[in-house]
Amino acid sequence: MKRALWWMAGVATVAATIALAAYLWLFEVRGRIATLSAVPFGPYVVTQHQRRTSRWLPWLPTHELEVSDASGPRWRIRVRDATPWDGFGASHWLRHDELLVEDGDTWHGHDLATGALRWRAPLHHVHDARVLPRVTLVLDGHSQLWAIDHTSGVARWARDFDEGRLDALPTLGDEIVIGTDVVDLGTGRVRLELPYAFAMAGDQLFWAEGDVVMRRPAGAPPRRVLSLSALGAVDALAVGDEVLIHLSRIAQWAPDVAVRAQPTAVRLDELTARDAAIVALGPHDDVRWTVAMAHGFWRWCAVHDPRSVVVVQTSRAAGPQYVDAAFAIDVETGTVLALDASSACP
């Protein structure tokens, strides 16, 4: 009896050894069966391999992602893709310095340089992502926006989101503007509700409240900076230590209002109800210069060759046709300059 037991144990050991060797050969040594893609991303290349699987071994990973640089492979991760279209490879995103990848019923984010795990969350697919200094914003398949903390690895907050691409959202220090809400990135709390028409220059917000232009630097309370009757839309452009404010006026669009023929440097109190204006504000809300202009503002840009000027392009109705025009303003003095072809906005 004892001899039979030893014989059975020996057979079992040999069978287990053969099975283990076969497993290691098939699923480790020869586990990669195809290379699906190799995507350059900055100094790195992310290569995706499909791995051998078996319906009898449901825990096996389906894909392997390998991050390499000029010196060779840096790190790799094996995941099990839960989506049925394996031919497209594992679901993953490359954003800034992070690799986001689906693994079964969870997603996790890894530092692209080292492979260190930053976070893990049970998300329903991922439609978009954006990496910020302390959190990663992830948009899931239910149109929920999640802010996932890099330190704790858990979600700080979530909210409904239908505002387009995450990369287009303005950020102001530890705040982000979603729609018309200024949201605290740490808590998800809405710090400020903006009107529909607002402008952003650098890390500052501008908008009109009645006849008053409001200014709010990142993290600070709003303050009044200008008062002007019949205000319409507000736009802003940061140039050096100044912020240029374009002010449209509601009265401009009345059919019986005459328009200014040429842009003119004026004092702020010389503006009439028919004038649009560009006003230069210093960091302490001091008005440095004002240029009155006709309505029809189209776009503007800062040009720094050889000196800082702002180029303004307009298009306004003149009878049955539209008249396009352009001019430049010296940012330091507010002097209106003739515009040559080399100064046009790119």
Descriptive account of the structure:
- With 346 residues, this protein is mainly β.
- The protein folds into two domains: 30-159, Beta Barrel (Lipocalin), CATH 2.40.128.630; 194-343, no CATH class.
- The protein has one helix and 29 strands.
- It has one helix at 2-29; strands at 32-41, 44-51, 63-69, 72-79, 92-95, 98-103, 106-111, 117-121, 128-131, 135-139, 144-149, 155-160, 171-172, 175-178, 181-184, 190-193, 198-201, 204-209, 212-217, 223-227, 231-239, 242-249, 264-266, 276-281, 287-293, 297-304, 308-318, 321-330, 336-337.
- It has a five-stranded antiparallel beta sheet with strand order 21-22-24-25-23, with no helix packed on it. It has a four-stranded antiparallel beta sheet with strand order 1-2-3-4.
- The longest helix has 28 residues, at 2-29.
- It is elongated, with a radius of gyration of 30 Å.
- The model has no long low-confidence stretch (mean pLDDT 85).
